[in-house]
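the two lines:
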Amino acid sequence: MKVTDEEAWREQCRRQLERDVPTRIKYGFCHVHKPVLDDAGFRAFATMAEYRRWCEDNLPAYLGYRRATAR
Amino acid sequence: MPQSKFTPAQAEELAAAFAREGVDYLFIGKSGAILLGYPETTQDVDIFLPRSRENAERVLRALRTLGFQLDPALPVSILAGSEMVLMKSGPFALDLIHAPDGIESFEAAKSRRVMEAGRFPVASLDDIIASKRAAGRERDLSDVRRLEQFKSEYMRGRKS
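prediction for all of em together
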């Protein structure tokens, strides 16, 4: 019987839930350079609206930081 | 660029440093979901903080013990309560968030939190999903459906 994508995903969820927290962290965090976003040591935004605007104006679209309705 | 990905040892150090300094905080976002067992990956650790200057001072003390080199402008922003602070040059990538979308207040989220493994305070899965749905970014909306499916397995596991 062919396993659907959703069933495979649910099985993956069940397996991960059986793992302890250190193991979840070990496999859950990665180190990937995100252009523009990672190019400054820090950035601070007074408001979330200011942060969202900066993301939409400055980040490459493929990173997915734009609001779904922004394009 | 952060020095490394977030490791289990760093998670323990963060929890210990924040506990030692008495920091009020919650893991949130995809990083919070990962601690709860969501089988996905992310780069950043997202920390939800209350709007409190005293708590911000505790956070700064803890960050220094964790090896974050703080640019002089950074403490000013954190103490002023900037709603979003992205820290990319420390031992790991860390986002400090004072006002995540879709959550009414830190205190409300804290009342619903999960203390994962007895030492990692994590926003509830419902709050994580609500926050992503309200943010409405492309990356968030693609997560919401999978988080909802994860939630049904998560809830089943908690009942058994």
